[in-house]
Amino acid sequence: MSGVVVTGWSALTSAGVGVDALAKKLALAEAGQVEKGQEIGDLYEEPLPAASGHVLTSFSPREHLGRKGTSTYDRSTGLAVVCCQEALREAGVSLDDEARPRIGVVLGTSLGSFKSTSDYTRETLVQDKPYLVNPMLFPNTVMNCAAGQVAIRFGLRGVNATIAGGTLGFLNVLRYAGNAIDRGHVDVVVAGAVEEFTPHRAWATHLTGATDVVAPGEAAGMFVLAKENTPEWAGTRQRAGVLAVATAYGPGGGDAAETALAGCVSRVLAKAGADAAEVSTVYTGEVEDDDRREYGPIVRALGHSPERVMVKRLFGECDAASGAVALGVLLAEERDSGPGGLSLLTARGADGAVGAAIVRRYADGGPDRG
Amino acid sequence: MARVVVTGVGPVSSIGIGIAAFAEALRTGRSGISPITSFDPAGFPHRNAGEVQTFDPGAHLRRVDPARWGRSSQFAASAAQLAVADARLDLTSVAPGRAHAIMGTTSGESAVAEALTAQIIADGFAGQDPALLTQLPANRLANAVSEELGLSGESLTIATACSASNYAIGYAYDLLAGGEADVVFAGGADSVCRWAHAGFFRLGALAKDACTPFDKDRAGILTGEGGAVLALETMEHARKRGATIYAELLGYGVNCDAIHPVSPDAPTVAECMRIAHRNSGISPSDVDYICAHGTGTPVNDLVESKAVIEVFGERPPPISSIKSMLGHTMGAACGFGAIASTIAIDRGFLPPTVNWTTADPELGVDPVPNAARPANVRVVQNDGFAFGGNNAIVMLGAPE
């Protein structure tokens, strides 16, 4: 694939709704004020494995979207739709009838809303009549619910793909979306990932040990992607270039996955025509300094040790959405990107899936294309 | 642009496992519908589904340990193993990183999700089995294929509901045509589950005994399951190794209704057909057969027929629904459709719509009722539509 540009974006994180909230939290963290999540309070009646997490405690889709059409949204869907609205607005996309068939949606997840499917199943097991389930909520049990509702809300009629990638979710999305643009299926993709905080996810991450070192979190991150020469309706500023994305698999995990990850790093450098020395920052899925499951193979592939940013320390374990949060942090930070100014986003899954993307942030939002 | 061909198919279905059994079942119009055994259907007024009751993962899997993977992943990996065998492909001869696994699904490891829900009800959230929780993420479907076949290329699971396999085959087409792959295993998998059975019933979209697409008295779907994987290669790669080429993958089209979560829209579906034709370089008059989405619900079959007539005119090509035999295999459905389309081209017959009794004058299509029909099939349109308004259509052609 050739590269794509980000013409606008938004993120919903435990910092709040939107880019400014994210930037504010990063500034606080820079000043040494790191939080390990917030009190979850009475968000759910069910017991939780911990009292705090990286949660949008007061989030209400209606506050941002109004009542119409939102009554059946589950939490994932609400996060995704609000985030998409913000991203389209940030990019300045004009949504007319000519543009809509040329705009796609590609959304990453682990398995959609486990709460929606599990609650639905529960009804079939505890009701006297097992079929007394709510038909209005049935669409929430399929994994593409959020992407479908995003399309419905904004009338986006191009490719509408939901990518179940788990930890790899967002890199899978960038790869798939880049292909869809490159091959001419659409001109623009609203690409992102979402993961909700529910008792189901909190317990799943807790019981599988995923959150031993970091609190569970929720987030959505959506990015308006277009070709460099895309018409003006796609947004007039270039915030960043996603120059190349590569994903691969190392059967059996372990060494094969490390080799595959190093291979992805080499491939994105080659595709982008970049030199390893230009990479100044890597955004990885690790949490602790001595965990080098991603950083190790990256350093070997690059031949030097760029600065490592571990966004889960600030925003929790957001699974498929963690990569989207990482790109948000990359774009929001007032970081001196150094000579070359290239960044890598990487991910490594529980089986053998790995991936890398190479990104260049344009200072001050890039050239005005108007 | 490289040309893309189908060199192997791996169906794991209620009407047969492997190409020989599956093709024979299509030719004879065999039904795979039976009383549900994978969950306790007591209390449900309707109790039939298309379960793969003879499935024995141990008979197919060499590297993937069934104990560590959910049923849908087992279907995916088994179907991939069958596709490799059918393609007579020695994977050690493919350059590392040039072979990929792209799988579609609606509900991923739905049986695992249900088992965990039963544990939550019995013992609370803390009572869930961590080993089961590790089987839950849906990306494991493609990973199971990559593990089983030892693939080091992309491993991607597309969860675009009931059009997901066509999405997967379409993305595979792009990888191959664009020079980023030599071989791709693409298709889909899903498992029969209690929640889908209940949900379709409450939508009024579940048939009692049999699925009767395009019939005047059609009453809805029956849920089904299985794994469907195609071995896709560039024509150059296939020719170089002397492979048998079943069919050519001509291209695909995708779009989204963006109107309603469950109710399909005929004009957008028609537009998706036009996109698929345009991307494949064919015109409607080239199409000999449409492998329908054909769920058997009153609205789907009406909308699909309307779209077909809008695109093809008053005398459209024959359109049959293999869901009449398999039930609705959800994320695997388009994969089975692509396999049936391949077999139709290779073996020269149209699979029938079984259980058909009464014409519906409102539809105006030829559903190939009840008996397979000999035909010289040069171009097939394989339809897929999904919740969320996600349309995906794949075009297959006879090899040249």
UniProtKB/TrEMBL annotation, chain A:
Top-tier EC class: transferase
Keyword Cytoplasm among record annotations: no
SUPFAM superfamilies: Thiolase-like (SSF53901)
Keyword line: Acyltransferase, Transferase
Domain annotation Beta-ketoacyl synthase-like N-terminal: ranges: 2-203
UniProt-listed Enzyme Commission number(s): 2.3.1.179
Keyword Transferase: yes
GO molecular function, one term: 3-oxoacyl-[acyl-carrier-protein] synthase activity
Domain of life of the organism encoding this protein: Bacteria
InterPro entries assigned: Beta-ketoacyl_synthase (IPR000794), Ketoacyl_synth_N (IPR014030), Thiolase-like (IPR016039)
A biological process term (GO) from this entry: fatty acid biosynthetic process
Protein name: 3-oxoacyl-[acyl-carrier-protein] synthase II
Organism in which the protein naturally occurs: Amycolatopsis umgeniensis
UniProtKB/TrEMBL annotation, chain B:
Residues annotated as transmembrane: none
Domain Ketosynthase family 3 (KS3) per the UniProt entry, residue ranges: 1-398
Enzyme's top EC category: transferase
Matching Gene3D superfamilies: 3.40.47.10
EC number assigned by the record: 2.3.1.179
Family to which the UniProt record says this protein belongs: Belongs to the thiolase-like superfamily. Beta-ketoacyl-ACP synthases family.
Source species of the chain: Amycolatopsis umgeniensis
Protein name: 3-oxoacyl-[acyl-carrier-protein] synthase II
